[in-house]
Design brief:
Length: 839
């Protein structure tokens, strides 16, 4: 255990810092880091080097080379730089490389050197050129801050949603500031810059001078400044060799340290651990590395070669040509267990486990000591926590074995933390492998989350590892395996050296019917890569027609889209394709396409009936559908034409169409309607009133109501209205007029073809019993009882029913008898029934 703490360095009395190697770098750097623009992404991210930058004098024919490596030095991409001079490099939160050029253009590249997009920082930046730039991260995304040749600042807090802000001018600023950085306060990005002994804070509205509290006197210039990973703390390096540390708001001083070195450092970054009270800053010069904090002494390391510092959530990564190291504060759990002569419960449990493996009785002694103090649960938790912060798998296993050993002597220790730590460490060890090159710590992993880690593995095209992690952690398929397979498929379609058939087959064999995978999204990616035939083949595997059709339309495969829409049975989808086809094809080709698809043709006809009547007529003409064409002209005669001549002409066209369709009934009916329209117009001209558009029956009724009986009778003869129907029409009309005298004359004009019971019913409907009785006596024997009952002659109805000896009539009369007034009649009926039964 003493050897284990050999690389621990105390900073004051309360904290230790250690530096251990992550990787032995195997990259073949042809130039020193000092001669390159360098950018390293946090959370164990990739490293970008732009060799031969423009500040270095080289032959004009030599082009700069942009190289991208993993954190372990494995090459990911290399490309010749063919654009303008670059001022700064930086990585976004999505691990996209932002290259800020001198003209203010920002070029965005992927992890594998693929160009994504570009944007400009504005015309002012273009005119004044870029002196310096910073890429920073906020809760909204990744931002870019620019210092122009006019000594003005422009920034965008989120390059994903570019909104440029021109910061206020600094009064009297004639040269570039000695140092500057970006701060994020109250969810707003600010610029902090140093001009001689003065500090200025720029926000969106004003430029204000600020003074760090408790700053040592004699400062004439600030040489370097650094903001912490969380933007909560700030460090300032002065020309007097003092390092001031405080809050980023510049309202509180944490400490101040005199490093006795006045030369400006190459880099200065914060080195702090989450939930730790210790604050430290790492300062790097050419060959010296210093860790300073709230202690009178510092920790110093010798740098054998050019190095670069990368601030992390819980420490600092330091890489050079040959090594990649991690410097951090020793976590509390590790310190408790491993510091010399520690009697912490975790330390005793670790010793007990080691003695147990040696089959020594000391194991029992250590265990009893922990149990007597009641600290066994704490000891197990300490070992589990410490295992998470260890980089070497052997030490992780040793601590987890100790925790497992201690758990055996606890009755109710929840296993969740132990199991989860084992899972997390297995994942971390897998991604820390040299060939993967993502040296995440446990704290970074928890902050990053497993979903983001999977996204980064997918971004590196490490699909097998990502799938293994999903299966090991048993993540839901939609969040895990399905999502990764979809990304793999989208990458697969970009491999243009493989035939469309082979790519489609490989994707289908791998994906099958995996839930959460959309073949249409993969097909869209294939179409975006210019592989239309591959996209069509992939769409054959898409079970949802609603996803197939829009992409087929986008690919201008409208006829195939129509077939797919019809197969789906979704009428809305069919209508969408039809309208697209209508705009895409000429009229003749469109109609020919519809003829081959009966369902589509039927739906389009329905659409035309409501929206495009002329197109509907053209469809009927093309198909020689005279029956529907006749119906169309009949509807058109009433919907469109107001003049009687136009309507008659349209009806004549309809009649001709019906004759062609060999529908003589419809043709005759149409011709009769034409005759009726002409007659109605003549009646309106001669008699006045409203006749047009009345039915034949209503026309006759209107004439009778107007007293034009002869005209009504002539109309009936012209249109061959049967006598029974004419008598009904006249009877109803005269009753409505209450012209009882004319009605009586009409009833005597000749024998009624409808009988006289209707006369009785109509008179009673008009509440005229007197007139009804006149006709009741003329009703035939078979309807006599009903007529007498209608006029209220119950006794006479009973006599007729008894005379007829009709049981049904007797029952009908009996049902109309009331107990008070018709008792004698009811008795009479009952006696008649009794006599009939005796016979």
């Amino acid at each position: 255990m003493d050897c284990y703490t050999a690389n621990w360095n105390p900073l004051g009395d309360s904290a230790f810092y250690r530096k251990y190697e992550l990787y032995s770098m195997d990259w073949d750097l042809k130039e020193e880091l000092r001669d390159c623009l360098v950018a390293a992404a946090p959370y164990g991210g990739p490293i970008a080097l732009l060799r031969n930058p423009w500040q270095k004098e080289k032959a004009a024919s030599v082009r700069p080379v942009l190289d991208i490596y993993s954190a372990s030095g494995m090459p990911l991409a290399s490309l010749l730089w063919k654009s303008g001079p670059v001022v700064s490099l930086g990585w976004s939160a999505e691990e996209e490389l932002l290259c800020v050029q001198e003209d203010g253009a920002v070029l965005v590249y992927g992890l594998h050197g693929d160009f994504r997009r570009h944007f400009s920082m504005g015309n002012e930046v273009l005119q004044n050129r870029v002196l310096d730039a910073r890429i920073f991260h906020t809760e909204f995304g990744s931002g870019v801050a620019i210092l122009t040749g006019a000594h003005r600042f422009t920034l965008s807090a989120n390059v994903g949603d570019l909104k440029l802000r021109r910061m206020p001018e600094v009064p009297g600023l004639q040269s570039a500031p000695s140092c500057w950085t970006t701060l994020c306060q109250d969810r707003v990005a600010h610029i902090l810059l140093a001009v001689g002994p003065d500090l200025y804070l720029l926000d969106h509205a004003a430029c204000s001078a600020v003074t760090p509290p408790g700053l040592a006197p004699g400062v004439s210039s600030f040489l370097q400044m650094a903001v912490s990973f969380t933007y909560r703390h700030l460090a300032l390096f002065t020309d007097t060799g003092y390092i001031w540390m405080g809050t980023a708001s510049l309202k509180e001083k944490l400490c101040e340290f005199n490093c006795n070195i006045r030369a400006p450092p190459k880099q200065m970054v914060w080195c702090s651990r989450p939930r730790s009270k210790e604050r430290a800053v790492v300062v790097a010069w050419e060959r010296r590395l210093m860790v300073v904090g709230d202690a009178p002494e510092s920790i110093q390391f010798v740098l054998d070669e050019d190095s670069y510092l990368v601030p992390e959530l819980d420490g600092v990564r330091i890489f050079s040509r040959s090594t990649h190291e991690f410097l951090h504060e020793v976590p509390a759990a590790s310190e408790e267990i491993f510091k010399i002569a520690s009697m912490a419960p975790g330390a005793l449990l670790l010793e007990a486990q080691k003695e147990y493996e040696k089959e020594s009785q000391k194991a029992d002694e250590y265990l009893r000591e922990i149990q007597e103090l009641g600290q066994l649960t704490q000891a197990v938790q300490q070992c589990i926590e410490a295992a998470g912060h260890e980089h070497q798998p052997d030490m992780q296993k040793s601590l987890l074995r100790a925790a497992s050993f201690g758990k055996c002597f606890l009755d109710r220790f929840p296993p969740d933390n132990f199991v989860r730590m084992c899972q997390d460490l297995r994942v971390l060890n897998a991604v820390r492998d040299y060939h993967i090159g993502i040296p995440l710590t446990y704290s970074q992993y928890k902050q990053l989350t497993i979903q983001v880690l999977l996204d980064r593995l997918v971004l590196r095209r490490l699909y097998p590892l990502a799938i293994q992690i999903c299966e090991y952690l048993r993540l839901p398929e939609v969040q895990g395996v399905s999502r990764i397979l979809a990304h793999w498929a989208c990458y697969k379609v970009q491999q243009k050296d493989v035939s469309d058939e082979d790519v489609a087959r490989a994707i289908n064999q791998k994906l099958g019917d995996t839930p959460g995978v959309s073949y249409s999204d993969i097909a869209a990616r294939a179409y975006g890569c210019g592989r239309t035939e591959l996209a069509i083949k992939l769409l054959e595997y898409e079970p949802r027609s609603g996803e197939q059709v829009p992409l087929l339309l986008k690919m201008k495969r409208s006829k195939l889209a129509l077939s797919k829409a019809i197969e789906s049975g979704d009428t809305d989808l069919v209508f969408t394709v039809l309208l697209h086809l209508k705009n895409e094809l000429n009229r003749g080709d469109f109609f020919m396409t519809l003829r081959n698809q009966p369902m589509a043709l039927s739906l389009y006809r329905q659409f035309c009936k409501h929206q495009e009547l002329e197109t509907l007529k053209d469809l009927y003409n093309q198909d020689d559908n005279h029956q529907e064409l006749g119906s169309f002209h009949i509807r058109a005669s009433y919907a469109a034409e107001e003049r009687i001549e136009g309507r008659v002409a349209a009806l004549q066209t309809a009649a001709d169409a019906f004759y062609k369709a060999k529908n003589e009934f419809a043709a005759k009916a149409t011709e009769d309607q034409m005759r009726l329209l002409r007659l109605q117009r003549r009646l309106e001209d001669e008699l006045g009133g409203r006749f047009l558009d009345l039915s034949l029956h209503n026309t006759v009724t209107t004439l009778i109501l107007g007293g034009h009986n002869k005209r009504a009778e002539q109309l009936a003869r012209d249109f061959r209205i049967p006598d029974k129907r004419l008598w009904w029409l006249k009877l109803t009309a005269l009753a409505d007029l209450e012209d009882w005298e004319e009605l009586e004359k009409f009833s005597k004009s000749k024998k009624s073809p409808i009988g006289y019971l209707p006369f009785v019913e109509i008179c009673m409907k008009q509440h005229n019993k007197y007139e009804a009785k006149k006709y009741a006596s003329r009703v035939g024997p078979e309807q006599k009882v009903k007529a007498l009952l209608l006029v209220g002659e119950v006794a006479q109805a009973a006599d007729v029913a008894i005379e007829h000896r009709n049981e049904a009539e007797l029952s009908l009369v009996l049902s109309h008898c009331t107990g008070a007034t018709d008792g004698a009649t009811a008795d009479k009926i009952q006696r008649a029934r009794a006599q009939a039964q005796k016979k």
